[in-house]
Write a sequence for this structure.
């Protein structure tokens, strides 16, 4: 497979972080549409969900990433 962090969404991580900071209640579909409007890049909402999970955001609640205590 492709090395981690080299997918077509990787260059847009800051874009997603900014949108989520502005509106923590934003949905995956809204993030997908915002990306398409800003860049013309069309991806599935699930791909954005996978990226956000990798970045440490929890499901649906896209506030600051939660620290995992172990």
């Amino acid at each position: 497979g492709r090395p981690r962090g080299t997918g077509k969404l990787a260059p847009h991580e800051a874009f997603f972080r900014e949108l989520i900071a502005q509106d923590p209640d934003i949905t995956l579909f809204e993030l997908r549409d915002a990306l398409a409007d800003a860049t013309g890049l069309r991806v599935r909402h699930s791909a954005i969900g996978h990226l956000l999970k990798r970045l440490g955001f929890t499901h649906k609640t896209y506030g600051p990433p939660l620290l995992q205590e172990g």
In short: The chain is about 45% helix and 0% strand. The CA atoms of residues 9 and 51 lie 7 Å apart. Residues 28-39 form the longest helix (12 residues). Helices lie at 13-22, 28-39, 45-54.
